[in-house]
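User: Hi! I have a protein structure encoded as tokens and I'd like to know what sequence might fold into it. I'm fairly new to this, so please keep things simple.
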């Protein structure tokens, strides 16, 4: 898919909860910057290809369960989360990927469309330092068809995230 396949959305085209979160957070200038694709971009690779950007410029929003409590980890699209580092960071006994039903119940969004903020419930948020390597990152805007750009420092601040190092080492 080329960049020609994307178009700017209106607030009514964005996921309603996410559109409301942008307005509540005073980020209405992002409404016209949301991009909608005709095909789903559920993975970071699909989103990067659709946008024509580097894979690491995608911000993945991943829900884990730390001792059964949901936690959101924001990670660059080219990297994987090291669950052992997340476990240590949180002081948890066990950290696993959350089941799809837990992701939807916690965030209000389906896997592949989870944004970094604007969730149904408040969760602890960790952001990997690798996101700061870019001037702009692209994150899901509440659906597998929509993304939005934001500078990573602002994104991390609006998500209420703690900056951590939880990326799997390159092997």
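Assistant: Happy to help. Inverse folding works backwards from shape to sequence: for each of the 171 positions I chose a residue that suits the local structure. Here it is:
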């Amino acid at each position: 898919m080329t960049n020609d396949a994307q178009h700017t959305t209106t607030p009514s085209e964005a996921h309603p909860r996410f559109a409301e979160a942008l307005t509540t957070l005073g980020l209405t200038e992002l409404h016209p910057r949301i991009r909608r694709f005709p095909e789903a971009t559920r993975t970071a690779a699909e989103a990067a290809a659709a946008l024509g950007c580097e894979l690491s410029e995608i911000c993945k929003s991943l829900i884990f369960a730390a001792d059964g409590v949901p936690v959101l980890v924001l990670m660059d699209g080219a990297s994987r989360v090291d669950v052992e580092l997340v476990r240590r960071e949180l002081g948890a006994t066990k950290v696993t990927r959350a089941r799809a039903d837990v992701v939807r119940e916690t965030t209000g969004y389906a896997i592949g469309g989870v944004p970094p903020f604007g969730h149904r419930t408040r969760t602890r948020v960790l952001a990997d330092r690798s996101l700061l390597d870019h001037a702009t990152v692209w994150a899901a805007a509440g659906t597998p068809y929509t993304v939005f750009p934001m500078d990573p420092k602002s994104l991390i601040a609006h998500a209420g995230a703690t900056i951590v190092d939880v990326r799997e080492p390159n092997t």
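A useful reference point when you look it over: The longest strand covers residues 58-66. Feel free to ask if any position seems puzzling.
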